[in-house]
């Protein structure tokens, strides 16, 4: 992947975020066919093709520096977007180790990690950071371990303790979410925080997912894709800030939908953590405007059909009600009814 | 898991710590460190015996902070199917073994307000690692350790030195029994109890805790017992299209593995549910020895846990 | 935002005695007395010796005296009346600090009372197997404004003005045990001034 970062991109105010042609082609389209319904679409998080978003454990792309800046802005305004219950400290160190080791191994041009026993030195070149610290001693880092490292990674992270045959969301950094609140959900169990998701409970999706995750093995992470849509390339679509971004939904027209409406895809990864036996849930967010999507003819046809035929409960839950029709109208001219090949890859 | 994800280790130390228990130190072949683990984890040790493969689970008893070696304790079992005899009689310093990545099915509850740890005999092993995690922390804990006699108390010096009066010893030879009822009845709200040892002791602790009103979620136990023996029988694997003979002293899982078919497993002790296999047909009786399936599921006869369960039947067909 | 039928709303059931417990701690306010008395009667039938290990903490409705008399007549281990909920909850916390494993908690009253009691029980690692709760009396909710994080008490309507930031909030069914409150989200962000009709629903 290109080493060129675009540090001045914004995900608010003037919304200068744009995808390069390379970023467009590697976008993780979540639709392998022309219709969409939930499933437990979990697969092993094994290395994908070179250059793809799944090539490495944690994907670093051209938006890395800009996203880290955006996260810093959110956390400065709202510290409660990062929280960790006291008993989660060992899992914080597990996460720091996992992310540092992965980034240093997979992007050696950008990150370095060296260790002398418990004395570690972490270098993050894109963010100009050089930090020596003692692994296991939080006083030697400028922030708590999870807070420290998630400010240097793209996407949200939620850490779940495993006990009493269930998973409990008890630590995390959540600044790029699709409309759920860590502050509100902190302390909830797996099915409790998925409470608001319609239909999936009846389909047994969460029962099966929970059972699977309780047996998640060290060294065998899994991943899945989730999706919604956003108006403007806004990462912070939190409930907390809904008064700021909610009004955007009413500004979409069939003429401007191409530039305003963005497909928002979450590449979710789940790792078992060694010291704490907890699970970390990484939620990596990718945005693409309908106009950028439509530069790939197969994707224009497919997304048009998925949106046009989407189940009403999903339209409501994913917040698409006000602008779904405008988006479908904008995409319609690109859909000549020709068949699309199975699978998400661009032709 | 399956054998594809094993690590090669070399035995770098063996010590006879009691008349029946040997302490093994394992180091990674080729140097480096071993995977990080949490106290209560176990590894499966794969042993190439004469004519058969043994896969036995052993708790990691070393400190989770010390990753240049793994330490396990193996008790020589009188009626052994060979695994513990292999470790005691055949494995020497320099021997090579394959081990699976650590799995933790016996972790400490992180929001407990107190931990009561109860060990019988070789059951002390998982607690040794857990005590390293607890030592110096703010949550109070007690270790109750019951053995036949002082010479059978493995790692006693190490425990005494580290834990002082948090350690309570009980010797059968001096008619000292753990007073389960008074012990469990007097614990403050938010206490969790953990027991590892002979099946009878585990049952006694569970029964006593329940009669004292403890909810099941506060009672944790781990048992590494050999799969029960039984009559020999035949099983047909529908997808592999082969017939497998299960001898009396080899489990259904082991026999299937010996025939070259892999079944996912985690604990090999009938507890975790990972090896649950669909029964397509049977003519006779399934002998369920596991702790995972509900009574209703066992009666239905559509699932079996091959790691510990068997059959008495004229015909058994599995979806493997 | 406007999804209905959320599965994270707590579900309550009529109280029943848990005879596997050794100590029984009962909390109630107002009409919560009836379920607690029913459980005590059940215990008298099935496990009379449990009554000695049963304590009742209770906030009576003003003007009614009969529930207190009924509790006292039931010859349980201890009965204490409190003038208000905060006083009861403070004593509850003190009792939990001295309580032993084998304790069962029974809570009866409005949901907001149950939520506050559960919050304290969480501090002592009591879990769902040790707690039974029956909702009775008012369904009024505590609402946590996700924007300014103020909690508005005693909400009976589908939308409410936040006591902190004055926004109109839609009262959702998504519930947090940690906060003992339902989520309130700005009701007219997408179309300012367009509010659903005000209805009394949590009565």
Describe this structure in words.
The complex is a heterotrimer of chains A (347), B (320) and C (203). With 347 residues, chain A is an alpha+beta fold. Chain A contains 13 helices and 10 strands. Chain A is globular and about 60 Å long. Chain A has helices at 21-25, 64-77, 89-106, 145-150, 182-185, 190-193, 205-214, 242-245, 257-260, 290-293, 297-308, 312-317, 324-331; strands at 43-44, 82-84, 111-116, 119-124, 129-134, 156-163, 166-173, 222-231, 261-272, 279-289. Chain B has 3 domains: 3-104, Translation factors (Elongation Factor Tu (Ef-tu), domain 3); 114-222, Nucleotide-binding domain of ferredoxin-NADP reductase (FNR) module (Rossmann fold); 233-318, Ubiquitin-like (UB roll) (Roll). Chain B is built from 7 helices and 17 strands. In chain B, the strands form 3 sheets. In chain B, strands 1, 2, 3, 4, 5, 6 and 7 form a 7-stranded antiparallel sheet that branches. With 203 residues, chain C is an alpha/beta fold. In chain C, the strands form 2 sheets. A 5-stranded parallel sheet of chain C has the order 3-2-1-4-5, with helices on both faces. Chain C has a 5-stranded mixed sheet with strand order 7-6-10-9-8, with helices on one face. In chain C, helix 2 (66-73) links the parallel strand 2 (54-59) and strand 3 (78-81). The longest helix of chain C is centred in the N-terminal third of the chain and has 14 residues, at 33-46. Chain C is elongated. The chains are: A alpha+beta (347), B alpha/beta (320), C alpha/beta (203).
Strand content of chain C: 25-35%
Terminal CA distance of chain C? 23 Å
- Shape descriptor of chain C: elongated
Number of domains as seen in the coordinates of chain B: 3
Q: Report the CATH architecture of the largest domain in chain B.
A: 3-Layer(aba) Sandwich
Mean pLDDT of chain C: 91
Question: What kind of sheet is the major sheet of chain B?
Answer: 7 strands, antiparallel
Give the oligomeric state.
Answer: heterotrimer
Q: Name the helicity range of chain C.
A: 10-25%
Please name the fourth-level CATH homologous superfamily of the largest domain in chain C.
Answer: Nucleotide-binding domain of ferredoxin-NADP reductase (FNR) module
Number of strands of chain B: 17
Tally of helical runs of chain B: 7
């Amino acid at each position: 992947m290109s080493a060129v970062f675009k540090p001045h991109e914004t995900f608010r105010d003037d919304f200068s975020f744009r995808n390069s042609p390379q970023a467009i082609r590697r976008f993780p389209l979540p639709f392998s066919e022309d219709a969409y319904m939930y499933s437990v679409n979990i697969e092993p998080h094994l290395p994908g093709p070179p250059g793809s978003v799944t090539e490495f454990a944690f994907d670093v792309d051209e938006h890395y520096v800009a996203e880290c800046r955006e996260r810093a802005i959110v956390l400065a305004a709202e510290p409660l977007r990062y929280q960790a219950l006291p008993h989660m400290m060992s899992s914080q160190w597990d996460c720091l180790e996992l992310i540092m080791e992965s980034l240093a191994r997979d992007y050696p041009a950008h990150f370095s990690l060296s260790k002398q026993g418990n004395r570690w030195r972490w270098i993050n070149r894109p963010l100009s950071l050089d930090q020596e610290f003692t692994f296991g001693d939080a006083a030697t880092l400028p922030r708590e371990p999870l807070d420290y490292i998630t400010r240097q990674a793209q996407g949200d992270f939620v850490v779940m303790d495993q006990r009493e045959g269930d998973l409990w969301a008890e630590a995390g950094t959540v600044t790029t979410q699709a409309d759920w609140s860590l502050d509100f959900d902190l302390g909830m169990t797996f099915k409790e925080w998925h409470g608001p998701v319609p239909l999936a409970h009846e389909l047994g999706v969460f029962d099966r997912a929970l059972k699977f995750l309780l047996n998640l093995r060290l060294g065998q992470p899994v991943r899945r894709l989730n999706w919604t849509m956003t108006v403007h390339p806004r990462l912070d679509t939190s409930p907390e800030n809904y008064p700021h971004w909610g009004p955007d939904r009413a500004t979409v027209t069939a003429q401007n939908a191409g530039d305003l409406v963005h497909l928002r895809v979450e590449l979710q990864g789940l790792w078992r953590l060694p010291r704490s036996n907890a699970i970390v849930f990484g939620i990596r967010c990718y945005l693409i405007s309908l106009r950028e999507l439509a530069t790939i003819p197969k994707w224009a046809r497919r997304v048009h059909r998925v949106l046009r035929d989407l189940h009403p409960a999903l339209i409501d839950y994913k917040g698409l009600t006000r602008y779904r029709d405008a988006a479908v109208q904008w995409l319609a001219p690109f859909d000549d009814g020709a068949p699309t090949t199975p699978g998400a890859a661009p032709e | 898991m399956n054998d594809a994800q094993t690590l090669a280790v070399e035995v770098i130390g063996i010590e006879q710590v009691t008349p029946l228990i040997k302490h093994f130190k394992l180091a990674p072949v080729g140097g480096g460190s071993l995977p990080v683990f949490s106290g209560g984890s176990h590894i499966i040790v794969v042993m190439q015996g004469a004519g058969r493969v043994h896969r036995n689970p052993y708790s990691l008893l070393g400190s989770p902070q010390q990753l240049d070696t793994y330490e396990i304790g193996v008790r020589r079992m009188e009626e052994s199917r060979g695994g513990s005899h292999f470790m005691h009689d055949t494995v020497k310093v320099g021997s090579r073994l394959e081990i699976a990545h650590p799995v933790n099915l016996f972790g400490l509850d992180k929001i407990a307000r107190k931990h009561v740890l109860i060990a019988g005999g070789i059951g002390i092993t998982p607690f040794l690692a857990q005590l390293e995690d607890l030592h110096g922390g703010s949550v109070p804990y007690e270790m109750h350790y019951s053995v036949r006699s002082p010479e059978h108390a493995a790692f006693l010096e190490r425990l005494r030195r580290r834990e002082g009066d948090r350690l309570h010893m009980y010797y059968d030879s001096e008619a000292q029994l753990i007073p389960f009822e008074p012990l469990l009845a007097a614990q403050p709200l938010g206490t969790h109890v953990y027991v590892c040892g002979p099946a009878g002791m585990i049952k006694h602790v569970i029964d006593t805790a329940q009669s004292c009103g403890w909810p099941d979620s506060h009672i944790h136990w781990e048992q590494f017992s050999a799969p029960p023996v039984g009559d020999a029988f035949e099983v047909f694997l529908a997808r592999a299209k082969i017939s497998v003979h299960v001898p009396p002293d080899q489990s259904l899982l082991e026999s299937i593995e010996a025939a070259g078919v892999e079944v996912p497993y985690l604990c090999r002790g009938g507890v975790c549910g990972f090896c649950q296999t669909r029964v397509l047909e049977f003519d006779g009786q399934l002998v369920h020895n596991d702790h995972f399936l509900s009574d209703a599921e066992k009666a239905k006869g559509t699932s079996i846990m091959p790691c510990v369960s068997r059959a008495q039947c004229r015909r058994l067909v599995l979806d493997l | 935002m406007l999804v209905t039928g959320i599965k994270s709303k707590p579900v309550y059931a009529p109280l029943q005695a848990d005879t596997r417990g050794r100590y029984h701690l009962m909390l109630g306010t107002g009409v919560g007395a009836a379920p607690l008395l029913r459980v005590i009667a059940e215990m008298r039938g099935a496990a009379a010796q449990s009554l000695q290990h049963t304590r009742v903490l209770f906030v009576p409705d003003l003007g009614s005296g009969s529930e207190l008399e009924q509790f006292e007549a039931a010859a349980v281990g201890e009965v204490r009346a409190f003038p208000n909920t905060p006083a009861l909850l403070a004593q509850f916390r003190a009792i939990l600090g001295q309580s032993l494993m084998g304790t069962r908690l029974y809570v009866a009253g409005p949901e907001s009372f149950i939520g506050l009691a559960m919050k304290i029980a969480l501090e002592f690692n009591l879990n769902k197997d040790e707690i039974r709760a029956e909702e009775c009396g008012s369904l009024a909710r505590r609402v946590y404004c996700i924007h300014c994080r103020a909690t508005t008490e005693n909400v009976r309507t589908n939308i409410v003005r936040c006591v902190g930031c004055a926004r109109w909030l839609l009262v959702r069914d998504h519930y947090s045990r940690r906060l003992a409150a339902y989520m309130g989200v700005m009701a007219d962000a997408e179309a300012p001034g367009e509010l659903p009709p005000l209805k009394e629903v949590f009565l």
